[in-house]
Amino acid sequence: MFTRNRFAAAPIIVCREHLADKDPIRAIVVNTGVANAGTGAEGIANARATCEAVASLLDLENSQVLPLSTGVIMEALPVDRIMDGLPACIADLSPATGPRRPKRS
Q1: Terminal CA-to-CA distance of the chain, rounded, Å?
Q2: Nearest to 68 by CA among 32, 44, 98
Q3: What does the longest C-alpha to C-alpha distance in the chain come to?
Q4: Shortest CA distance to 79 belongs to which of 93, 69, 88?
Q5: 8-50 pLDDT tens trace
């Protein structure tokens, strides 16, 4: 389910694009703190870059990853922080336990 607001946030735009590709969704990347909403072309590029990074680490197509964000509106997504944390998040995935939240440093 997506917002019906005509001013959709970058993650919603990218999710719609990826779902339209009809590839099976294999991963989601979720961030909190920054909604990546009201960020224009930069926000869309950041959402796509995040999906590309996750897809690369998991050997998936970009369109098989959905970006989800919640938090402050009109702030740039901290892509570098997300990219830095992805390897640890992915290393912590387990079929037995599911994903766990990484420890904050």
Answers
A1: 34
A2: 32
A3: 40
A4: 69
A5: 999 999 999 999 999 999 999 999 999 999 999 999 999 999 9
